[in-house]
């Protein structure tokens, strides 16, 4: 294992990923941000210089951050935000192989482009020798307006619409927008060259696909080519017949690796990444960005070596399943049998809720509490200063459990008409049960045999989810819907894992210093 150093300069640039120019919150002037490659066991040191003019943090989605909870990048939970003009260094080891990503966790900055892929190679990956080359594909919904004004409208008093409607779909930083729908006065380029992936006939390719959207579920397919699913959110899966698909559903923040064999005629084929509009909430006239003439389809090209440069003539595979739900669980059995514990030590029952506050702002919550981060006072630091964790309470959506290596069970009942892709920090979880109905009675059977293990799963409208995981990672971990608009509306819980032990860890000086810098920054701005 080695230490890998990266330098991130966060800055706002002008870019036109889908042809329409806008301000983009970037890492090193790139969208998506630079690809981080490492090997399992490596240490990653990322020096972040924040030149955005606004505070920021970087979260490393899916990385366990064992013994480095303070580098998980969640403002108010694990660190203070990095003020503008300040540098902060993230420093952690990568104990997991697989496909991950990083993104700002400060307000909705990642919706504005502050994100990138993080790939951890593992020489023990059983599929290592099953492909010749690999590609990383990021998918995203995209908005022509910055997130800040959209967010203001989303949480405005009396607002009755749903989430801001996206304008286009992006594959690996590139989309195709019909410029006649572009906002007035905006520069728009009709001829953005499509994302192109070169293959040689007879070779095999691993595509690592990451949905970095704010809101949208995607389907991904390559005309005339099957996709063999081998990895799900960093977890290697069994080679079973159900794992071969033609169309892959991928929800917000999920990742898949698929192996594609270039076994077709030498030619060009469309790669299709499409926003599933019918998985979004209905677009009513009240909806922010109602007038969007959305292009929900981003197309890339699979180009065989030796083929001409003409447009593909290939046709799309039909979608024969419900793309709003997770990939069929039979397709994603863990590679190594890894049964969940039979007994539970800690148990939480979470209901998703929606209510209007006294100002008539519609807020989401868990058990009727809408989460509010306290930016200048991260929970993990309060615990390390030996504040009694029992003082944190469910009225703030903060839940603690203290049994070393106990088994935690979370039952999530989503009685809302909205889909919620839920993500747990610091862990991957077993999916014990998942299905229609948002009451305890709807949970009829648990899968003890070979449940899927992942870190983000889609909780469909009016449905339930039961997950289990081992409390093997002391720290403060967020559990939240990954639709960014829902995060800002409070659909977040905070889990304090093994506070007794965690409070004995030593907080690095720079993490503590960051809070002083942030508090000074706030004073100056007052
Ligand atoms: Cu992708 Cu709270 O994270």
Unreliable sequence segments = none
User: In total, how many domains does the architecture comprise?
Assistant: 3
Q: Please identify, by name, the CATH architecture of the largest domain.
A: Sandwich
Structural class: mainly beta
Per DSSP, what share of the residues sits in E-state strands of 2 or more residues?
Answer: 35-45%
Q: What is the count of helical runs?
A: 5
What ligands can be seen in this structure? CU-O-CU linkage
Number of strands: 31
Q: Please bin the fraction of helical residues.
A: under 10%
CATH classification, class level of the largest domain: Mainly Beta
Q: What is the gyration radius calculated from CA atoms?
A: 22 Å
CATH topology (fold) name of the largest domain: Immunoglobulin-like
What is the CATH homologous superfamily assignment of the largest domain? Cupredoxins -  blue copper proteins
Head-to-tail CA distance between termini: 46 Å
Main sheet overview: 7 strands, mixed
Q: Give the CA-based shape.
A: globular
Kindly report the average pLDDT value. Answer: 96
Task: Explain this structure.
With 526 residues, this protein is mostly beta strands. It has three domains: 124 residues, Cupredoxins -  blue copper proteins (Immunoglobulin-like, Sandwich); 212 residues, Sandwich (Immunoglobulin-like); 171 residues, Cupredoxins -  blue copper proteins (Immunoglobulin-like). Helices cover 8% and strands 36% of the residues. The chain has five helices and 31 strands. The strands form six sheets. Strands 9, 10, 12, 14, 15, 16 and 18 form a seven-stranded mixed sheet that branches. A six-stranded mixed sheet has the order 22-21-24-29-26-27, with no helix packed on it. A hairpin with a 6-residue loop joins β1 and β2. The chain is globular. The mean pLDDT is 96.
